[in-house]
Amino acid sequence: MRSSNPVFSRRGFSRDNGYAGFNTAPQAGGAAVGTQGNPYAQPQAGNPYAQNPYAQQGLQPGVPPQAPVTTGRMTMDDVVMRTGTTLGVLVVTAALAWALLPVDDANIGRSYGIAIGAALLGMVLALVQSFKRTASPALILSYAALEGVFLGVVSSVVDNRIADGAAMQAVIGTLAVFTAVLIAYKAGWIRVNRRFYGFVMAAALGFVMLMAVNLLFAVFGGGDGLGFRSGGLGIAFGIIGILLGAAFLALDFKQVEDGITYGAPREEAWLAAFGLTMTLVWIYLEFLRLIAILNSSD
Questions:
Q1: Which residues lie closer than 8 Å to 107 by C-beta, 6 or more apart?
Q2: Could you tell me if 283 and 177 are in contact, meaning their C-beta atoms sit under 8 angstroms apart?
Q3: Taking the mean position of all CA atoms in its chain, how far away is CA 241?
Q4: Whole-angstrom Cα distance, residue 87 to residue 72?
Q5: CA nearest 94: which of 44, 165, 144, 40?
């Protein structure tokens, strides 16, 4: 599945490095692809290590794998550092775009055009990274920089022309969702399994399809399309979008946890940072859109 938000089509850790994330596409005959690298797949009969390519072969069947102690494996510090770097690039370019691309009446067209161009190019880079077998820090950081330009201009528009303080409110909301999901995940209140994943992906697909139809009606029919992004429906869909982002955060946390447990290579931390950044951008935009609707005079 591909949407305007690459979160919904992101791969897991790379197949070549042994951790395929959530690849469950059917093969001929109905078998699932990638189950050997999928931590949610059931072990194959007679092979207790089928679901973990990093499992130590000396372990007895039924004994969970231990986190590797050798160097070159991904750790939580690696994930935190790469995520911090990626988000730092995004924040810096967003601040520069806010300062250097004014959104007054004389310049808003040019600034918005640059922002849309940056968003489209960033989407292309996200697509390229999503289909690459290995993480590319240059691609990921370039995506973050371009996404920052887009977010800086959009945030400036909403903050200066619709709702004063909207950007800070959206940041606080995003941080609150991140913290709440992390606490719920660590406490075991959220159980990420195949059923959870299937439900989230089905809901995301329906959400994206509705938004695409609404956009088509808005482009060709004018106005707000089917009204999914304005009024009461807009508020409802904004809340749904935030909840979907929270669900994808839980999936991100599970991927990071499994990657560390199963000994994913250190460079895979860049993929974790990539996924977390895209999810946080999605949540922030949904908060910003919701705040704009709530403060709109329409």
A1: 101
A2: yes
A3: 12
A4: 23
A5: 144
If you compute the radius of gyration of the chain from its CA atoms, what whole number of angstroms results? 20
User: Residues 30, 31, 36, CA angle at the centre, nearest 5°?
Assistant: 160
Task: State which amino acid sits at residue 162.
Answer: I
One pLDDT digit (tens) per residue for the chain, 298 residues: 333 334 334 444 444 444 344 333 333 344 433 333 444 343 343 333 345 544 443 344 445 555 444 458 999 999 999 999 999 999 999 999 999 999 998 899 999 999 999 999 999 999 999 898 889 999 999 999 999 999 999 999 999 999 999 999 999 999 999 999 999 999 999 999 999 999 999 999 998 888 888 778 776 766 666 766 777 888 998 999 999 999 999 999 999 999 999 999 999 999 999 999 999 999 999 999 999 999 875 4
Tell the burial category of 268 from Cβ atoms under 10 Å away from its Cβ (0-12, 13-18, 19+): buried
Residues in the chain: 298
